[in-house]
Amino acid sequence: ARNLICGSLQNGITSGDGEGGSHVIEGNYIGVDLGGTVVVSNAVSGISLSVPYCRIGGTNASQRNVISGNLIGVSLGGTNAHHNEILGNYIGVDATGLAALGGVVGIQLGNVRDCEIGRGDGPGGNVIAGMEDAAIYLGAACAGNRIVGNLIGVDATGNNRLGNGGYGIYLLRTSPTNTIGGSSAYGEGNVIAGSGGSGIYAVYCTGLVVRANCVGLGSNLSVIGNGSRGIR
């Protein structure tokens, strides 16, 4: 039942203000070919939403989207784009999760609240790797968002470098309270490794919580250092 969504001159999938929300987008190849190994990019975002209560991906492999080669993998923007979930996707990598296909930014949020990127205690984390700039970017007025259980800058095993050229997670002028990681007992920590710049870079942010992550380390605690600071 997979959709193959590629080669568009704008976004692969768009849902804007007034279009309801509560959408489910799962199991698709977006920006790649039928085999999931060759880039056939959409010119802007793979998925762009400004509506609430959507789920992109899921917690089992059949629900996973492969979203690679696009300028932005997933973009959420605007005050109506709240309570969305981005779970279990391969972003910037091929369908095996082992090779980089790239893009510029993996996941971008702007003026968005109460969204969940990844999930602990199971396979709900995203693999976000091989991007030219940041794996995850949170812009102004983002509040109450959680980034948990993701593999950033490594492949799907969590142990091999597929670094992002800029930052693992970049936050600019975000509002309270965004969380990166959480309880180690529930697997909510992220692997944030292999970045060209810092692993986590936060500028003019308040109330940021960073807990139980492996920064500059793979899942097996092997060293996969970031090019600048671990956390700045």
Description:
Helix content is 0%, strand content 28%. It contains no helices and 22 strands. It has an eight-stranded parallel β-sheet with strand order 1-4-7-10-13-16-19-22, with no helix packed on it. The protein has a seven-stranded parallel β-sheet with strand order 2-5-8-11-14-17-20, with no helix packed on it. It has a seven-stranded parallel β-sheet with strand order 3-6-9-12-15-18-21, with no helix packed on it. The mean pLDDT is 97.
Question: Which assembly state applies to the chains in this document?
Answer: single chain
Structural class: mainly beta
Query: What is the CA-CA span between the terminal residues?
Result: 43 Å
Radius of gyration: 16 Å
The side-by-side strand order for the widest beta sheet comes to 1-4-7-10-13-16-19-22
Shape: globular
Number of strands: 22
Largest sheet: number of strands, sense, barrel closure: 8 strands, parallel
**Count of helical segments?**
0
Amount of helix? under 10%
Runs with pLDDT <50, length 5+? none
The string of secondary-structure elements, in order, is EEEEEEEEEEEEEEEEEEEEEE
Query: What proportion of the residues form beta strands (DSSP E)?
Result: 25-35%
